[in-house]
C-alpha cells in the first residue's frame, strides 16, 4: 500500500511544495530551528544544564506577627507542591544561582552557576480556615510562566481545600502572607522545596555596570535624614535599562531614601550583561547609599 505524504505549504504562500522539498524540511537539523544566538527577548541557547530546586518561603505581612510557625509554613508548601509545575521556558532573564549578584561589590566567585531568574512573589490573604481570599503577584523574574505556575498551584490547592488553617495562636479572621519563590542548588535539598527541575546553565557572563556617572541621576533625598542605604533587587534589560516593574526593596530605613532611588533609577543607563557576546536581561542587587556629609557632592 503506498504511503501518502500530506501536502505541505510553504509559510506565507498557498502554493503546495514538492515531495523533495517536503523531505528536506522534515529532515532539517534541529539546530536550524533553534533561536538565533542573540534572539530578541530570549536567552541564548546553551548545551549546559544544572539540576535546581524551586523553593517557596512563606512569611507574614502582618506587623503584629513577627514569624509564622514552621509547622504551618511547612504544611502550606506541602499543599502547594503536588500542584506546582516548573516552567519549561523560554527564559528571558539571567541571574546567579542563589542570591543575585551585587553590583559594585565583589564579582561572582569563580565557578558561580548562572541560570534563568525564576524568583517571584505571591501576596495572598488567607482566611482562618485556610482558604484564599485574595491573590496578587509581584513580577521579579519577568517570566510570566513562573507566576502562572504559583498562581495555578494556589488556585488548585484552594479548590481542593488542602491549604492549612491558620494557627490557633493567630487570633484574627484572616492573615496577609507572602510566598517568595527562588531557585537553589538541588543537592542542598533546601527546606520549602516545591519541586526540582533542570535549567540551562551559563558561563562567561559579563555583569551590567552603570555607565560613567549615571548614578548621579539619583538625587539626594530632599528631607533632612540621617545616613541611609537602600538595597534593591531589580532587572536590567538587554538594552541596559532598569525595569521599574521589577524593583524589589530588600532593605531601607527611610521612605525618603527609597523614593529617591525609585524616582532616579529609571534614568540610569547601564551597560547590559552579556553572554557569549549577546546582551541579556539580568537580575541584580545594588546598594544606594546616602550620607549627609556627601550631600553637596552628588
Give an account of the 3D structure.
The chain contains four helices and 15 strands. It folds into two domains: 49-200, no CATH class; 205-297, Fusion Protein Consisting Of Minor Coat Protein, Glycine Rich Linker, Tola, And A His Tag, Chain: A, Domain 2. The strands form three sheets. Strands 2, 3, 4, 9, 11, 12, 14 and 15 form an eight-stranded mixed beta sheet that branches. The chain has a five-stranded antiparallel beta sheet with strand order 6-5-7-1-8. A two-stranded antiparallel ribbon has the order 10-13. The chain is α+β, with helices and mostly antiparallel strands. The chain has helices at 19-26, 70-80, 144-159, 255-264, and strands at 49-60, 93-96, 102-103, 114-116, 120-127, 132-139, 174-185, 193-200, 205-206, 209-210, 228-236, 248-251, 270-271, 273-275, 278-290. It is globular, with a radius of gyration of 24 Å.
Total domain modules: 2
Q: Which strand-content bin applies to the residues?
A: 25-35%
Give the biggest beta sheet: 8 strands, mixed
Cα separation of the termini: 82 Å
Query: Which radius of gyration do the C-alpha atoms yield?
Result: 24 Å
> How many β-strand runs?
15
Fraction of residues in helices? 10-25%
SSE arrangement, N to C: HEHEEEEEHEEEEEEHEEE
Structural class estimated from helices and strands? alpha+beta
Provide the residue-averaged pLDDT.
79
Number of helices: 4
Unreliable residue stretches: 1-36
Sum up the overall morphology in one term: globular
Amino acid at each position: 500500500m503506498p504511503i501518502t505524504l500530506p501536502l505541505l505549504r510553504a509559510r506565507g504562500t498557498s502554493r503546495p511544495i514538492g515531495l523533495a522539498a517536503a523531505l528536506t524540511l522534515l529532515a532539517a537539523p534541529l539546530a536550524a530551528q533553534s533561536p538565533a544566538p542573540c534572539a530578541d527577548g530570549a536567552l541564548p541557547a546553551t548545551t549546559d544544564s544544572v539540576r535546581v530546586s524551586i523553593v517557596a518561603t512563606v512569611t507574614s505581612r502582618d506587623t503584629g506577627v513577627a514569624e509564622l510557625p514552621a509547622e504551618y509554613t511547612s504544611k502550606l508548601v506541602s499543599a502547594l507542591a503536588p500542584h506546582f509545575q516548573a516552567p519549561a521556558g523560554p527564559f528571558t532573564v539571567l541571574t546567579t544561582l542563589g542570591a543575585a549578584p551585587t553590583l559594585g561589590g565583589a564579582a561572582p566567585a569563580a565557578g558561580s552557576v548562572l541560570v534563568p531568574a525564576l524568583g517571584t512573589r505571591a501576596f495572598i490573604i488567607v482566611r482562618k480556615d485556610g482558604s484564599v481570599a485574595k491573590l496578587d503577584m509581584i513580577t521579579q523574574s519577568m517570566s510570566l510562566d513562573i507566576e502562572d505556575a504559583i498562581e495555578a498551584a494556589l488556585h488548585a490547592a484552594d479548590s481542593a481545600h488542602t491549604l492549612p488553617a491558620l494557627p490557633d495562636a493567630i487570633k484574627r479572621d484572616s492573615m496577609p502572607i507572602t510566598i517568595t519563590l527562588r531557585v537553589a542548588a538541588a543537592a542542598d535539598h533546601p527546606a520549602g522545596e516545591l519541586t526540582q527541575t533542570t535549567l540551562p546553565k551559563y558561563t562567561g557572563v559579563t555583569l551590567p555596570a552603570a555607565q560613567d556617572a549615571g548614578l548621579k541621576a539619583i538625587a539626594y533625598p530632599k528631607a533632612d535624614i540621617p545616613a541611609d542605604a537602600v538595597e534593591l533587587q531589580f532587572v536590567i534589560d538587554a538594552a541596559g535599562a532598569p525595569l521599574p516593574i521589577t524593583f524589589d526593596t530588600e532593605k531601607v530605613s527611610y521612605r525618603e531614601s527609597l523614593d529617591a532611588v525609585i524616582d532616579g533609577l529609571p534614568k540610569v543607563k547601564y551597560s547590559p550583561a552579556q553572554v557569549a557576546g549577546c546582551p541579556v536581561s539580568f537580575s541584580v542587587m545594588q546598594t544606594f547609599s546616602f550620607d549627609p556629609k556627601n550631600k553637596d557632592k552628588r
